[in-house]
Write a structure and sequence with these properties.
The protein is α+β, with helices and mostly antiparallel strands and 340 residues long. It has two domains: 148 residues, 60s Ribosomal Protein L30, Chain: A (2-Layer Sandwich), CATH 3.30.1330; 172 residues, Phosphoribosyl-aminoimidazole Synthetase, Chain A, domain 2, CATH 3.90.650.10. It contains eleven helices and 13 strands. The chain has a seven-stranded mixed beta sheet with strand order 8-11-7-12-9-13-10, with helices on both faces. It has a six-stranded mixed beta sheet with strand order 1-2-3-6-4-5, covered by helices on one side. Helix 2 packs parallel to helix 3, helix 4 packs across helix 5 and helix 7 packs parallel to helix 9. The protein is globular. The protein starts with 20 loop residues before the first helix and ends with a strand.
């Protein structure tokens, strides 16, 4: 198979390509929410996935996510895109069941390249305990790939964003900075090892973290992706009717991300995320910490809010399983996000 640079065919990559959250709010404001008592999670408010109750014991979780290439290797691109989509189901407390490919690809590229994309996705789908059962492919000058995923969850055990309560502690289960590192790679300024570390993080399914967290009955969960940590923290605060306080010094960063941020590396998603959340975030943090907080993440970790008394045992449980769990803040009475 010939060597090619998939990222050269894309104007932007990964979750940095996500539609502006501010524009998305305006777009969705004109849509009426569905009047169906079995639609447990839909557009009012939107969450990481839609959830529809089938009966007292079962509900389906449904999501779709796709984007342009973040890396040049096609198999790795497919695996990262699949991980990003599958993680939305884990963020709702569910288990993936079935996935369909969403594919747009230039017709002039070798079919073997697309085959590698699909193979990478299939491996991650299987690792998530699901089946890749088909999909849809169109011709497009800019390659894009992702999944539509169906999963299951108990109707009484799903994890919405709108559940955080004063007294909760906030945890983050992955390091931040994928957008910064990927942009640096495009700009040819990424330090040695930074991209490899970012890829390793983006390939990590949130399955193990979700399984470890589930017995602790978290108040609210979301995965940190295109809107950045501060954008998703704002969503959690607004929909829960609370104030989220985040300690900027506690944020875990990918290797090289902080130095690159100090050097001024930013994505277009950083600007869009600031436009969306800046009026809802009170920041007392440094410029570098803000860059990390607003950086759009691809296949990011879980932002978890759970009662403070359960926090020490959760930390110990995740550490024993070799899983990252960094305490980054707390939930208090009030509104908005305080980033200090």
């Amino acid at each position: 198979m010939e060597t090619l640079e998939l990222t050269a065919l894309a104007r932007t990559g990964g979750c940095a390509a996500k539609y502006s959250a501010a524009r998305l709010e305006t777009l969705l404001a004109g849509l009426l929410p569905a009047d169906d008592e079995d639609l447990l999670v839909g557009l009012d408010p939107a969450d990481d996935a839609a959830v529809y109750r089938l009966d007292d014991e079962r509900a389906i979780v449904f999501t779709v996510d796709f984007f342009p290439p973040v890396v040049d290797d096609p198999r790795t691109f497919g695996a990262i895109a699949a991980t990003n989509a599958l993680n939305d189901v884990f963020a709702m407390g569910g288990a993936p069941l079935l996935a369909l490919s969403v594919t747009a690809f230039p017709e002039e590229l070798p079919v073997e390249v697309l085959g590698e994309v699909l193979a990478g996705a299939d491996e991650r789908v299987r690792a998530a305990g699901a089946i890749l059962a088909g999909g849809h492919t169109i011709r497009d000058d800019e390659p894009k790939y992702g999944l539509a995923v169906v999963g299951t969850v108990h109707p009484d055990r799903l994890w919405p964003k709108a559940g955080a309560r004063a007294g909760d502690v906030l945890f983050l289960t992955k390091r931040l900075g994928t957008g910064i590192v990927l942009q640096a790679e495009r700009d040819k300024v990424s330090p040695a090892g930074a991209l490899d570390a970012a890829i390793e993080s983006m390939l990590e399914l949130n399955r193990a973290a979700a399984d470890a967290i589930r017995p602790f009955e978290p108040s609210a969960v979301t995965d940190v992706t295109g809107f950045g940590l501060l954008g998703h923290a704002h969503e959690m605060a607004e929909r829960s009717g609370v104030r989220v306080v985040i300690d900027s010094n506690s944020l875990p960063a990918l290797p090289g991300a902080l130095d690159l941020a100090r050097g001024g590396v930013r994505t277009g998603g950083d600007r869009r995320n600031r436009e969306y959340a800046d009026q809802r975030v009170t920041s007392e943090a440094s410029e570098v910490s803000e860059a990390l907080g607003y950086d759009p993440q691809t296949a990011g970790g879980l932002l978890v809010s759970l009662p403070g008394e359960r926090a020490p045992v959760l930390e110990a449980t995740l550490a024993a399983g070799g899983l990252l769990a960094v305490r980054i803040g707390k939930v208090v009475d009030g509104s908005g996000v305080l980033f200090r």
